[in-house]
Amino acid sequence: MLDGPDSCAASGISDCVIAGLRSLTAPAAVSWATHLHWLNLHNTPLSFMGMTAAVVVFSLGAATELVADKLPFTPSRLKPPGLIGRVVFGGLSGACLAFAGGQSIAIGAVLGAVGAVAGAFAGYQVRTRLVKALKVPDLVIALLEDAVAIAGGVFIVSRF
C-alpha cells in the first residue's frame, strides 16, 4: 500500500507515463486493478472502470495496440491522434489512481495527462536512440517497450 499524497501523485504520474508508451495499457491496468479490488473506485463517476465490459474493452484495445504499433503504416505517437489519445487515457488513469489514493480526481487527471505527454516524448526518444545505438531492428526495441509498459502498469497498480 502506498502512503501519503506524494506516493499517490508519484504513482499516478508513473502509471500515466505508461500511457505515453502504450496509450491503452495504463487504463487496461487500472481497469483490471479496479475489477480485482486493488483500487477502490466504488460510488464514484469512475466506478465503470471495474466493470467487466471496461476490462474487456481496455484489454482488447491494449492488445490491438501492441500489434498495431509494429505495423509500418502506424503513425508516430507524437502525431495529434496518438498524442490526444495518450492525453485522454493518461488523464483517465491518473484520475482513477488519484481517487483511489485519496486525492483529487481533477488533479489526478491533469497530472495523468502531463505524465502521458512526457511518456510519449521520452518513449519516442529512448526507442529511436536505442535502435540507432544498438543497431537492432525497431521491432526488438518495440517489444522491449511493450514489456516495460505492461510490467510497469501492473507493478504500479498493484501497489495500492
What do these coordinates show?
There is one protein chain. This protein is 73% helix and 0% strand. It contains six helices and no strands. It has helices at 4-21, 25-35, 52-68, 80-100, 105-134, 138-157. The chain starts with a helix and ends with a helix.
Termini, distance in Å? 5 Å
SS-based class: mainly alpha
Shape assignment? globular
The fraction of residues in strands falls at under 5%
Radius of gyration: 15 Å
Please name the defining characteristics of this protein.
single chain; 160 residues; 0% strand; globular; disordered N terminus
Summed up, what is this model?
The protein has helices at 4-21, 25-35, 52-68, 80-100, 105-134, 138-157.
Draw up the topology in text.
Layout: H1 4-21, H2 25-35, H3 52-68, H4 80-100, H5 105-134, H6 138-157
